[in-house]
Design a protein that fits this description.
By secondary structure, the chain is α/β, with parallel strands linked by helices. 30% of the residues lie in helices and 21% in strands. Strands 1-2-4-3-5-6-7-8 form an 8-stranded mixed β-sheet, with helices on both faces.
Length: 210
């Protein structure tokens, strides 16, 4: 475990998964909704991080404020963007000479995208099943709020929270791409390796090492 510092003075619990082969990139990976007990230790988070490491990507996971060993409390979405910013700064500082990408699952996918809008980021992005269909979920940015970047969304055709067609419409509106994984729900049970291969390929991971 390690700690990363936010601009408003909090220390967040974080964990590196180092690339198992010569690194080709570094990824900040954001976890699901803290209000629904989401943490960086969710099984999908651990599985995908491990596979990305095998594909040559350093991965930084972190707990949003108020989760696990992270200081603070729920920030209404505004503080959580600062948490993403702190993680990106830590990843960039640790590995300044390799490309940086950002990814998230569910709430984490929404927060990573909102951070990109705020910072006008052009980093590669992967949004795994962003939960845009939940009534209390924070809104995703409109196309005009985002700087052009290489963005991929991945969703299962059985997702419980966001219809694939709705995410397809959103992806098209911001110039992103969508991959729909058949037979998968929001949690991608028994499909973590397949999901990780898609994520790694988009973020520049080494082929054949999912």
């Amino acid at each position: 475990m390690t700690g990363i510092e936010t601009t408003d003075g909090l220390t967040l619990e974080a964990l590196w998964t180092d690339a198992a082969v010569p690194p080709v990139g570094v990824v900040v990976f954001c976890h699901p909704d803290p209000r629904r007990r989401g943490t960086m230790q969710a099984p999908l988070m651990r599985s995908v991080a491990r596979s990305l490491g095998a594909a040559g990507l350093h991965v930084l996971r972190f707990n949003f404020r108020g989760v696990g060993g992270s200081e603070g409390s729920w920030g209404g979405g505004r503080g959580e963007i600062d948490d993403v910013d702190a993680a990106v700064a830590a990843a960039s500082s640790a590995h300044p000479r390799i490309p940086l990408g950002i990814a998230g699952w569910s709430f984490g996918a929404v927060m990573a995208l909102r951070w990109q809008a705020r910072e006008r980021s052009t980093s590669r992005y992967v949004g795994i099943a962003p939960a845009i269909g939940l009534p209390d979920m924070l809104a995703v940015p409109a196309g005009g709020d985002l700087t052009a970047a290489d963005r991929l969304f991945v969703i299962g055709d059985r997702d419980q929270f966001t219809p694939a067609w709705a995410l397809a419409d959103y992806a098209a509106s911001i110039g992103g791409r969508l991959e729909v994984m058949s037979g998968c729900d929001h949690f991608f049970y028994f499909r973590h390796d397949r999901l990780a291969a898609v994520v790694a390929a988009h973020l520049g991971g080494r082929a054949g090492r999912p």
